[in-house]
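Hi,

I'm pasting everything inline rather than attaching a file, because the server keeps stripping attachments. The sequence lines come first, and each chain or strand is labelled.
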Amino acid sequence: MENLSTVLHGFVVAAQPLNLFFVLLGAILGTVFGMLPGIGAATTIALLLPITFSLDPLGSLIMLSGIYYGAQYGSSASAVLLNTPGTASAAMTTLDGYPMARKGRGGAALAISAVASFLGGTISVVGLTVLAVPLSKFALRFGPPEYFMLMVFSLSAVSAFTGASVSKGLISALSGLMLATVGIDMQTNVSRFTMGVPDFQNGISFLIVVVGLFAITEVFFNVERWFMGELAPIPISGKLWFTRDEWRRARGAIGRGGLIGFIVGVLPGAGGVIATVLAYTTEKRISRHPDEFGRGAIEGVAATEAANNASSSGAFVPLLTLGIPGSGIAAVLLGAFVLFGIQPGPLLFQNQPDLVWGLIDSMYIGNIILLVLNLPLIGLFVRILYIPPGILLALMLAIASVGVYTIDNSVVDLYLLLGFGIIGYGFRKLDIPIPPLILGIVLGPTLEQTLRQAMIISNADPRFLVSSPISASLAALTLVSLALSFLGPLRNRRKKRREQN
Amino acid sequence: MHNLRAITKLAVRGSLASMIALGLTAASSWSAQAAWKPTGPVQIMVHTKPGSSPDVIARTVQKLWKEHGIVTVPVTVLNKSTQAVGFSYLLQHKGDPTKLTISSTGTISAKLEGITTIGFRDLTPISLLMSEYVGFAVPADSPYKTGKAFMEALAKNPSKFSIATGGARGNPNHTTVALAAKAAGIDPRKLKMVVFSSGADARSAVIGKHVDAVTTSAGSLIGQMQSGLLRVIAVSSPKRLSGPLSNVPTWKEQGLDVVNANWRWGGATGGLSADQIAYWENVFAQTVKTKEWKNFVAKKHAETTYLNHADTLKYFQQQEKSLKELLGELDLIKK
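And the predicted assembly:
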């Protein structure tokens, strides 16, 4: 813990009119650009970077950081209303956010997103303020074996999604893992499953897969419903705010999601998407009604939104204390620091406390601004659902295609988008769950690469994978998690039998 | 060009006086017409993500061209996902002098490795711009104080040491260690290279002591060196770098003959005419002279290694030759 007066002095710095203006600007830019898939925080920051050279470094960093965590607020709006995640880390939000909107609870979903983002973000900034230095030492203990076991543990959550049929769950998870292998292999430079298409050399972008599986599939389904005459407009039921009962269900999820998001955000090798996957699966597993997940459970939205915001502030822990970015976007931010002639690290806290604490404290203010900014927008956003289906579906297609095209300016990506839309349609018709595929494609690359890194380091000794206390504990947790998923259904069956008797 | 031919025809036919008179008028109209200038928007294609080093260079260049009036037409930066995709985009616009690129050492290595079929001969390299040198670092409390000491220990037991690198095999980070190993009499294939997705991940693996050393851009090591997390024990520059890295000896000083860099070049698609090349050559020559460029390069702890069009081509040919040999020894050349 730093000297309290230095921390408080940061607020004085952050509250200077110019810096307040930069927080506001960053928050607005983040919210706007976060909504459109493709133009995420990384692109926005990179676009603005050359312009900021001539501005005050602290003000610029405050703004660029604001874009980073602000994008997490904006991305939930398109996820909930259009089934189109605005950023990769909002993919899990669509799972329950969109079903909530279809049930007429879109306003509540957006409200809980904003509140969860605010609370998750604030939990995380508090963590950043109090624990930055000790946590960064903990993060360094994560090497290839630890990350590998963390991925294995996360992947064991697939069992929570398999639903009625284990084989269908496995088909989905393995498809995800297979998709994750496409591209030039990092360790050997060998092209795998690229089929001679140069666009596949960098792998298949996660965002294309999720936008295809969610947004495009949804368009197909709605067109089908329209032909069958089943497509009814979605009535908005109740208030735009969440009910007391919904809040009771969501608040625990926000706390846990914020904590998980913060810890995963601190780890340099695991980003926001993995944080949301872990937060969501944790909620589903400890929930008393796991069946509601995927059908509009407010806990699902609350946990993922808290987690993705918390992870973005968590990424500042290794960034500021060690100069190691905790995510791809943090890496772009690190580039900004360097171009301003600022080298993050322990020395920065000693030499430029005003800058460090001004920046950190600006995040408290930024989160409040974002909450205030986003809440009134809910009333405006939910009106999107009143748009006639013929226009709304076209709008979804347009946003999804434009967003995906802007990732790499590639037409091949549009074909992929369509392809994943068709695959998603098939999966839903065949009742194959989609979340395991998402887990596979998110965790797959890290799972594979960290295993191979560990094998190179240890000269192919598998014992190395469980040789540290952290990786051994994660392995034990995986076993517990697998055992629970077998025991759960067993207990249910026994209970049912007892009830029948 | 047509006017030039006209000049020669006329010169043969006419008298000395009329030749001089005609020649003067022809020459003035020639210079007015032939000095090609872009009239429409210009695009700089970058085959890496927004925020990556070539992308930031392109955006910095874009900004200073406008501010200094070096290029007066609008300039945009276009990001493509991979080198193969980006270069084939340039080739689709062959002969279009407004399709530029900022690229790197990968231009030569990716072609040799068979990752792309398009090489620098299909494009128009205009000028080498800058070089980012490669640093070699160990954890701050490592027993190895010099690059040479590390290599000597590694020679005795190659399977004991793992070296982290960011990006991919065959990039300058990897080739620098491979060259150092070769110079120390070690088979570079025996190096245990652990590839991480970024230089930052590779650095954190060394700070956490999961690997024994890291090879990555020298500038990126400064922060952690100053914080006492890492010890930089060699740099790949021909002479010592300035600033915080000035205490770090080069590989050469340590008796291992290694000079290597990740260089960046600016150029255009293939099929440009001589006056179009001359225009862009002049643009890049002016670019590297600006204060903003010098500041930018200094902040990156890199060096401006400007070469004109002809010298850049010569440099590429020479780099291609040496990389071909080295990548062959590393089994990275596609057969």
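Residues 2-500 of chain A form one domain.

If the labels don't parse on your end, tell me and I'll reformat.
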